[in-house]
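Example 3.2
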Amino acid sequence: MKHCSSCGALVTRTVPDGDNRDRWVCVECSTIHYQNPKIVVGCVAEHEGRILLCKRAIEPRYGRWTVPAGFMELGETLEQGAARETREEACAEVRIGHLFASVDVVEAGQVHLFFTATLLGGHGAGEESLETSLFTPDEIPWDDLAFKSGVFALEKYFEDRGRNRGVHHHLVRRSKPR
């Protein structure tokens, strides 16, 4: 960050009074620019024992499979965001169930939250998907899934078998170079 979004002046890294960590602070108007994690919401949508997956048409992980998920928008609830992402990525309507998984992706500055869902009708590829498909648990392309958080969500979904057993939590750590 170089310039203040409030006044356009230069910003500097400093610990503001009463704070405990470096923040971007405007040298002119003293606005503190907090940078906080972004929330990603998604769902594991099921229809007659099969799970809806989307093949990504965008980076990162172009061509890999994932559950429908994406960044929340201002003015929507977690559930609304998960349903919207499913509409956008899979042209599908879902009935959102309960929150069952959360994943901290610290290095990316993200928190991923996953809901159970019931697929209410058809599906197709949205702008961010090359294709969509329904998979039985045995057909899921585990080695071709895009994100560790999606793998975790699917594993916990199948462990629970759709029952509300609380929220499973996971921390994704950066892989160490080999």
